[in-house]
Amino acid sequence: MYSPTDLTDTWHSALTRAVRDVDTLFDRLHLPIEHKEPARRACELFPLMVTESYLARMIAGDWNDPLLRQVLPVGAEFLTQPGFTSDAVDDAAAHRAPGLLQKYTGRVLLIATGACAIHCRYCFRRSYPYGEGTRKLDDWEPALVEIEKDESIQEVILSGGDPLMLTDERLGAMLARLEKIEHLQRIRLHSRLPIVLPNRMTSGLIELLTASRLTPILVVHANHPQEIADDCANVLQKIVRSGVPTLNQSVLLRGVNDSADVLTELSERLVNLGVMPYYLHQLDHVTGTAHFEVDDTTAIAIVSQLRERLPGYAVPQLVRELPGELSKHPLLPQR
């Protein structure tokens, strides 16, 4: 049984114990056996993976547990829906070099790795061709040269997959190379690991980020207040107190967080730890994820309620990513 207080556990060993098969997940959480076969079939589309830390925050026997719903393979993933595609945000059109994407002015995104510690069923890159990407630091050189040539780029976003799946050594080598590019000012990391694998955030990793000449910004990803507990809450507070600006982005998901009560509690738990709510994303229309969609009218109504309940700094901006746009598209109530 997982214990969040086991200080001898390393993030590497925690990864090796992540649950990767349907039988184990169903047995551990006492889930209805009639749903097991559809879950097995859905794993053929996108494999199951969930860390012990995240599993420990689920309620056994609750088929509608909001954390379970985010990782549980279901038969609905086989349903086809008009407008849902494998590359909903048109990453292919933003390709500048191997592993390098640019959609917005002044910043670029590096696909640091295709690996994650958890497989979210709504993932917008669940069909991304990670096998075609870079695997070692030398492979990044064309992308890094492209960044060097463009002095308009001030910020590099490390994404994936999850960039914190890189070892400290590989991440440190990447940071050292980026620091040599004089016009870069900031390094941003988009990571779910502080939420689902909190012991990844070691003192050594935090020191690596804070020692860089590039200003570090960490964007984590939590969708439900039940995630912000125990080892996760402790680690988020540790990161914030280290001086690393930390933001949270969520995805609005049917049956998970599509209520003002849930999102109010999420924002309150985050800001009490010093983490600022950043974006609330409308679902990217990726094949196999339509069962998570919340319509725009409902989404706007929920955020309007958040504005009535929370201070302005605690209200995330409701947005959708539209291919070809130069920024995230805000969804606002009609006046």
Q: pLDDT average, as an integer?
A: 93
Instruction: Label the overall shape.
Output: globular
Strand neighbour order, sheet with most strands: 1-2-3-4-5-6-7-8-9-10
Order of helices and strands: HHHHHEEEHEHEHHEHEHEHEE
Termini separation: 53 Å
Q: Describe the biggest sheet? A: 10 strands, mixed
The portion of residues assigned to helices is 25-40%
Low-pLDDT windows of residues: none
Give me the count of strands: 10
Structural class category: alpha/beta
CATH class placement of the largest domain: Alpha Beta
CA radius of gyration: 19 Å
Whole-number tally of structural domains: 2
Instruction: Using the coordinates shown, work out and report the CATH topology of the largest domain.
Output: TIM Barrel
With helices defined by DSSP (H or I, 4 residues minimum), what is the helix count? Answer: 12
Mind explaining what this structure looks like?
- The protein is α/β, with parallel strands linked by helices and 335 residues long.
- It has two domains: 11-78, no CATH class; 91-330, Alpha-Beta Barrel (TIM Barrel).
- It is 31% helix and 15% strand.
- α11 (260-272) crosses α12 (296-309).
- The model has no long low-confidence stretch (mean pLDDT 93).
Output the keywords.
335 residues, TIM Barrel, 2 domains, globular
Compact summary:
Helix content is 31%, strand content 15%.
Summarize the topology.
Layout: H1 11-16, H2 22-29, H3 36-42, H4 52-56, H5 66-71, E1 95-97, E2 100-101, E3 107-113, H6 141-149, E4 155-160, H7 168-179, E5 186-191, H8 193-196, H9 203-210, E6 215-221, H10 230-241, E7 246-251, H11 260-272, E8 276-281, H12 296-309, E9 317-320, E10 329-330
Parallel strand pairs: 3-4, 4-5, 5-6, 6-7, 7-8, 8-9
Antiparallel strand pairs: 1-2, 2-3, 9-10
Helix pairs in contact: 11-12
